[in-house]
Automatic annotation (TrEMBL):
It comes from Escallonia rubra. Residues 1-25 form the signal peptide. The lineage of its organism: Eukaryota, Viridiplantae, Streptophyta, Embryophyta, Tracheophyta. Residues 34-179 form the Pectinesterase inhibitor domain. GO terms for molecular function: pectinesterase inhibitor activity. Keywords: Disulfide bond, Signal. NCBIfam families: PME_inhib. SUPFAM superfamilies: Plant invertase/pectin methylesterase inhibitor. This is Pectinesterase inhibitor domain-containing protein. Belongs to the PMEI family. Gene3D superfamilies: Invertase/pectin methylesterase inhibitor family protein.
Length: 186
């Protein structure tokens, strides 16, 4: 569910951000920076800049100077990864013979259902300019991947079969968060 933000506040914030002569040029949604500069400027704010650059550059649409296009790419990458993780969880559930592991996997399945609902709501918040809500969705989905990973710590503890998937989901959601911060001027 999107957090309602009064349109007047969004409009004033957006105008101040766009018209501000003091902000860096990459902050403005259609700044005159080439795509490599835009990706580099966004990714320098990421916890893992190399991962961010590689992920964004994996999609040809990232070759843009429009940060909203980059935001859409990042949302789709995070959603695709979370969906793949959810499919993997289902596959692991079908193969599991251990009741404890099955319980942990079921908890992760439920968590990823929530993460996917957040990520599926993200494009609309981008479209409507609700960048705070976009940020909250990204942070929420990233937190959920961490909670899934923590589920395997027990008791009893299990080696997580989802460590890489959870980490990738978290890092991809971090890209969405960074871009929402840029768009919202946070």
């Amino acid at each position: 569910m999107a957090v309602p933000i009064p349109r007047s506040i969004l409009l004033i914030s957006s105008l101040l951000l766009v018209l501000s002569p003091f902000g860096p040029s990459f902050v403005r949604p259609n700044a005159n920076a080439d795509s490599d500069d835009l990706v580099a400027n966004v990714c320098k704010e990421h916890v893992n800049p190399g991962f961010c650059i590689d992920a964004l550059k994996s999609d040809p649409r990232a070759n843009t100077d429009d940060i909203k296009v980059l935001a859409q790419v990042s949302i789709e990458l995070a959603t695709f990864n979370a969906t793949g993780t959810r499919v993997k969880i289902h596959s692991l559930l079908l193969a599991s013979r251990d009741p404890g592991l099955t319980d942990d996997l079921n908890k992760c399945a439920d968590l990823y259902d929530i993460a996917l609902s957040y990520l599926e709501s993200a494009p609309e918040t981008l479209k409507t300019g609700e960048y705070n809500a976009l940020n909250l969705y990204a942070v929420g989905a990233a937190d959920i991947s961490s909670k899934c990973e923590d589920t395997f710590k027990g008791p009893p503890p299990y080696q997580s079969p989802l460590s890489t998937d959870n980490n990738n989901t978290s890092l991809l959601c971090e890209i969405v968060k960074v871009i929402s911060n840029v768009l919202g001027g946070f």
